[in-house]
Design a protein that fits this description.
alpha+beta, 2 domains, 9 helices, 7-stranded mixed beta sheet, 18 strands, OB fold (Dihydrolipoamide Acetyltransferase, E2P), 5-stranded antiparallel beta sheet
């Protein structure tokens, strides 16, 4: 009996996946519930098991191919004994794993579990001829990360440090005498997915941008005076991000139309405020979600963000960590960028890009109306919004509220110090 293996639906917002690696080849025997193929989505990795025992007779979708949910991936020929035991094969459970997390215990054969490696790490190892078993991984449970492979290659080749690799688009077409030749870097499934989603957002959404400037001198002084006590009490650093989130939440409460998503024939204003936070990592950008941010203090936000960001950097995220966002913050200011024009995270209405906080001479007006020049901590607040839903005046009012909250907000009680 022929059984079809299909691309599973792992979450409401995940509409497609990329075949990263076939663990079985045509003609291989497979056991029921044995993993046959690894799928990469823009959120988490998925292991697709066989629903029956039998033979993998035909692979329909090759590696590095992206297909929609429900697509037929392969054909399986079910064993006669399996048919006799189970009249109708029940679907095998799809393993939506924490990204690249090793198995929890011994395998069915009794062998000790080994740390699993991401598709990116495996591809790097293949490109450089590296045996991953020879590398001491720095990730959780000894997992080998991208940087571990690059460091190993640099040491092996006698390089003093890793040589940065430029994309082919910016490298010279013909290398002059004595310079290194161009190098092609294949797209990883995660990078390819990010590229498709960003292109889709830019193509379908009429993006518009507004930027305000805020004087956050008081915020900077509060953080500087509080960060040591906060670290001593909580064991984590106090960054500016929880303050930004708290101010954004307050602005969203006053302007709920910004906490919405676009539907085919309607605008859905969300009741919950779930803040997405864009985080950089080895495999590409990922947006983490802080749920019910409206119920959390600055201290509470900091304590939730710290382990969540660590999970992202260690590639241990679950679907719950990346779903359900209603408004996104991308903090390129942490890299020194003054302002940004980020692309909207569909189907949300807007995304905020706080810029770097810099010292500048500014005109300061005292309580008596007297003006003077003073050194102030200034930053830009850049908002990208969906012009189908939000007009320029709406964006301006939202940023004005956000600016006021950052400049005048009393955050001391939120720190719990």
């Amino acid at each position: 009996m022929t059984v079809m293996l299909t691309m599973p639906e792992v979450a409401e917002s995940v509409l497609e996946g990329t075949v990263a690696r076939w663990l079985k080849q045509e003609g291989d025997q497979v056991e029921r519930f044995e993993t046959v193929v690894e799928i990469v989505t823009d959120k988490v990795d998925v292991e697709v098991p066989s629903p029956v025992s039998g033979v993998l007779s035909k692979i329909l979708v090759p590696e590095n191919t992206t297909v929609p949910v429900g697509t037929n991936l392969a054909l399986l020929e079910e064993d006669a004994k399996e048919v006799a035991d189970v009249a109708v094969a029940r679907p095998a459970p799809v393993a939506v794993t924490e990204r690249h997390q090793p198995p929890a215990g011994p395998s069915a054969a009794g062998a000790e579990s080994q740390p699993r490696h991401s598709p990116l790490v495996r591809r790097l190892a293949e490109q450089h001829g590296v045996d991953l078993t020879l590398i001491q991984g720095t990730g959780i449970h000894g997992r080998v990360r991208k940087q571990d492979v690059l460091d190993h290659v640099a040491r092996r080749d006698g390089a003093a440090q890793e040589t940065p690799v430029l994309p082919a688009a910016v490298a010279p077409a013909v290398a002059p005498e004595g310079l290194a030749k161009d190098r092609s870097i294949p797209l990883t499934p995660v990078r390819a997915t990010i590229a498709r989603r960003m292109a889709k957002s830019a193509r379908e959404i009429p993006h518009a941008w507004t930027t305000f400037e805020a004087d956050v001198t008081g915020l900077v002084e509060l953080r500087e005076s509080s960060k040591e006590a906060f670290r001593s009490r909580e064991g984590i650093d106090l960054t500016y991000l929880p303050f930004f989130i708290k101010a954004v939440v307050g602005a969203l409460k006053e302007h709920p139309e910004m906490n919405a998503v676009w539907g085919d024939d309607q605008i859905v204003v969300k009741g919950e405020i779930n803040i997405g936070v864009a985080i950089d990592r080895d495999e590409g950008l990922i947006v983490l979600v802080v749920r019910h941010a409206e119920d959390k203090s600055i201290a509470g936000l900091a304590k939730e963000l710290d382990p969540l960001i660590k999970k992202a950097r260690e590639e241990r995220l679950t679907m719950e960590d990346v779903q359900g966002g209603t408004f996104t913050i991308t903090n390129l200011g942490s890299f020194g960028a003054l302002f940004d024009t980020p692309i909207i995270n569909q189907p949300q209405v807007a995304i905020l890009g706080p810029g770097a906080i810099v010292k500048r001479p500014m005109v300061v007006t005292d309580a008596d109306g007297q003006e003077s020049i003073g050194i102030r901590h200034m930053m830009y607040l850049s908002l990208t919004y969906d012009h189908r839903i939000v007009d320029g005046a709406d964006a301006g009012r939202f940023l004005q509220t956000l600016k006021s909250r950052l400049e005048e907000g009393s955050f001391e009680a939120q720190l719990g110090l």
